[in-house]
């Protein structure tokens, strides 16, 4: 079904603005004709996923917060002291963004996980 842009703008002005802005786009990597198979494949992406120290560091705003995370996880013995030392060294030498871009609060929901 094709619709004229003027009519679309009149009927759905906010939708057209969102479409033209090209933000919050979702990539479709495959199409499944069987609903149950599709749901099973897409819903299991982060099943049983446990964030690691890097996931937590990527949520930090600065080096100080990241060091606190590393210290906490080392104290709880979730990471070893050698690994913690290497993480601190990377933080001091290269900064918190050397671990990857910042993960925002709704990181997983934007990727269709929740």
Question: Any overview of this molecule?
Answer:
By secondary structure, the protein is mostly helical. The chain has helices at residues 5-11, 13-21, 35-43, 53-57, 63-75, 81-94, 107-110. 54% of the residues lie in helices and 0% in strands. The longest helix is centred in the last third of the chain and has 14 residues, at 81-94. The chain is elongated, with a radius of gyration of 21 Å. The mean pLDDT is 80.
Helices and strands in order:
Elements: H1 5-11, H2 13-21, H3 35-43, H4 53-57, H5 63-75, H6 81-94, H7 107-110
Helix pairs in contact: 1-2, 5-6
Highlighted features:
single chain; mainly alpha
State the shape. Answer: elongated
* Main sheet attributes: strand count, strand direction, barrel closure: none
Structural category is mainly alpha
* Domain module tally: 2
Q: Provide the gyration radius in Å.
A: 21 Å
Roughly what fraction of the amino acids lie in strands? under 5%
Order of helices and strands: HHHHHHH
- Mean pLDDT, nearest integer? 80
Q: How many H/I helical runs?
A: 7
Poorly predicted runs are none
Could you state the oligomeric state of the chains shown? single chain
Distance between the termini: 31 Å
């Amino acid at each position: 079904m094709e619709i004229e842009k003027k009519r679309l703008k009149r009927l759905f002005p906010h939708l057209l603005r969102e479409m033209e802005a090209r933000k919050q786009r979702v990539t479709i990597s495959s199409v499944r004709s069987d609903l149950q198979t599709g749901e099973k494949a897409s819903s299991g992406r982060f099943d049983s996923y446990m964030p690691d120290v890097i996931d937590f560091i990527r949520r930090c705003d600065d080096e100080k917060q990241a060091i606190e995370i590393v210290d906490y996880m080392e104290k709880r013995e979730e990471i070893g002291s050698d690994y913690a030392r290497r993480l601190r060294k990377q933080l001091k030498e290269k900064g918190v963004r050397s671990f990857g871009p910042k993960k925002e609060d709704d990181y997983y929901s934007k990727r269709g996980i929740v």
